[in-house]
Predict the 3D structure of the following.
Amino acid sequence: TIRFFDGELRADLKLQQAGPPKDDRITCAVRFEPVAGYRKGRKQIEYLKKRSRITITFAPAPGTGLYTPVAASVGTQIGTLRIQATRVTAR
């Protein structure tokens, strides 16, 4: 579970592995669970909560022993948002 607060909304992202690792990468299916700071019944929140398909892919961060997000996909009411890291470095 990833707990986050964006200054207004407090929510949890519940992660579940979505298949076997591929090339040292792990992809998780994500369930969005709003906790506080939002208006109940709001269409966008209800869509994310009940219908959105969300995935996050993690890969090892070089030299750290930790995994970092390298790609994400979020289904929205107007289309799918995709974001992809072009480089991963450890400092």
Notes: The two ends are 25 Å apart (CA to CA). Helices lie at 43-50. The first strand starts at residue 2 and ends at 5. The beta strands are 2-5, 10-17, 26-36, 54-60, 67-76, 79-84.
